[in-house]
Amino acid sequence: MNQRPDTPRARGFHMPPEHAPHAATWTAWPVDDALWEGELEGVRDDMAHLVAAIARFEPVELLVRDDEARDDAHARLERLGVPHGVVRMHPAAYDDVWLRDSGPAFVLNASGDTALVDFRFDGWGGKYAAERDDHIPSLIEDVTRLPRFPIDLVMEGGAIEMGDDGTVLTTRSCLLDGVRNPGLDEAGYERALREALGATRVAWLAGGLVDDHTDGHVDTVVRFAGDDVVLCTVPDADDAVNHATLHANQRALEALRRADGSPYRVVTLPLPEDRSTWRGVRPPRSYANFCLVNGGVIVPVWDDPRDADAIAILGEVFENREVVPVLATHLVTGGGALHCVTQHQPLGGRPT
Fold this sequence. Notes:
This protein has a single domain (22-346), classed as L-arginine/glycine Amidinotransferase, Chain A, CATH 3.75.10. The chain contains 9 helices and 16 strands. The protein has helices at residues 40-55, 67-79, 99-102, 123-126, 136-144, 172-175, 186-197, 240-255, 307-317, and strands at 22-28, 60-64, 87-91, 105-108, 114-120, 148-154, 161-162, 167-171, 201-205, 222-224, 229-234, 265-270, 291-293, 296-301, 322-327, 343-346.
């Protein structure tokens, strides 16, 4: 396939894996108690602990919607002992905090220059208001002064997982929902992801967790943990609503081969024992929704008997990183956890 002249790939850019070195992590401060259906106080507490954990390892770029959000964030982070200057706050208009999906994908070229890939964001197939969130990449462009590539494709960062070799993992349940990009098939997505992110191939998995309003984002169930290791969430035998989909993912990963023909090491992660519902749906509680930082892995925990098992598995897989658990029981009522509210910026420079 010929490269189109104005795509990131044609300009020499590609998306590195999340475990590559970071310059910073981006997120946004939660606002609007009505949006959070009465959970805002607890959500802000979860978020403060997440930001404090990330700030131990790398800078945090924090969007704040108004003076109240800025002051609340400052007060909570100060109480947690976060040093001044590690968290940089930026006034911004946004609808919600799920920057993995609404924020830009950061890409690098061979010289280490950084750019932004700006996909369209439509609130997970039009489920939620997203007009302001769709402009977050341009807001980050204003802050960073990095070049931005607008891409005419609805895409969410939580829907894709990038490996060292350019392999993208995604789910059919999300990208082929027929709503985000009507008429676009697997081959069309593969072409688009090659041009936008420098993907070498796309490996299609079945789907994600039951009741996930994202239609099954991959970052709640499957994650890369290095060049030959992939983590795969598996359900208990009696978890009937998740059993078929998650085991289909596992079989697909076990059949997947690297460029040299060798298999990946597939490491399984349990789901929490807690299957309770909130407002009639089962929140996407998952240990796979961790976020990587320089020298650490920040893991969502649920005050659940499985927390210790998941922490031990991740500690073995990420043997050179410190595993830091952060409670996400309030945050998940909004439909996601730690990875969903963060967007990593790889270490690089600004093109001259």
